[in-house]
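Minutes, project check-in
Item: structure for the 377-residue chain
Input as provided by the requester:
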Amino acid sequence: MVLMAGKPKFRLFPKRGYILLLIGILIGFLLFTAISIMFARGGVEVIEFLYTSEKQGWIEEVTPLFEEWYFETFERRIHVKLTVTGTHDSVIQILWGNVKPVAWSPASSIWIPYLNLMWNKTIGYSEKIAPDNWNKTLLSPVVIAGWKSLFEQYNIASFRGLYELARTGDFKFGHPDPRDSNGGTMAVVLEFAEAATKKPSELIIDDFKHEKTLEFVSTLESKSVYYGKSTGFFGRWAAENGPSAISFFSVYENVVLDNALKAENRWADPLVAVYPENGTLFTDHPFVVLDAPWVEPWQKEAAQQYLSFLLSEENQQKAQQYGFRPANPNVPLNTTIFNEANGVRADITEVSILDPLPGEALDALFTVWITVKNQGI
């Protein structure tokens, strides 16, 4: 008898064991992914803060305290990834995509219109990456620094005064290169504004082409003996080498604070700050939460908490130890630091605070700088 082979039974659904196996594999994969992310981030929420070196000491002191406060307040761990660089370089790094910060703090708000201009011009976005609702965190005015005896001798009170002296006399001038330093950029902005008899906010592209304006800046820059990358260098250089090395230089007020007494002890002539009589720009160290494609809503909220922490009275008091005036108006000025014995004035309420120039004007300044700088250095 021939046995006929039966047809194999077809199952519409696999056995329950197979289903459980597949579910187990899926759960394992999801757990592995979650654990991998946790280990990659260390189980910590991360925001990147791109800021400039002038305030590095202060930021490095207070940021760990913020991370502790954040955990105690919200029961979630956060890590502020600190990335420090120069102001102009910070703009370039954002545009090139080398860093993708949640918050950005250049040394001065003059760079905000410039970043927005270049973001639109080079990246092609129509919206601003740096919104208008930014906050100042620290203050330090741009000053003309130099030896007290020379200020009294020549009665210098402005960049125009330096220009007039450059036409008839001989002295040594200096400031950082505007292509490398915010301090240098702000100095040259003030020179062009004085040359054009305008406020920086009124400067237009044509002002950087006008013959008389270019002659003014070129004449003053002809007295420059050095350009560098740091305002701090000029204060140290002057204090170490004396009046024969450099007569006047444009820097931040805190540079004078750091070097006034050192200079007097060595040369019996203190370094002092003169606040330009027609007004000056302030390094206001804006804290800008970026409107960028890579910034998530929770990161914006965390960055706002970080900003509030930086502006707290306790941390604004700490900033004064680094030579910065508080941006929080409720914090009193420490007059044991800011006083004439340290080369600066405590009360500068009569000094006009000038608004930044348009981004197009700053771009024009960088273009023309090579033609007005001292060609010998």
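Outcome recorded: The CA atoms of residues 226 and 377 lie 6 Å apart.
No further action items on this chain.
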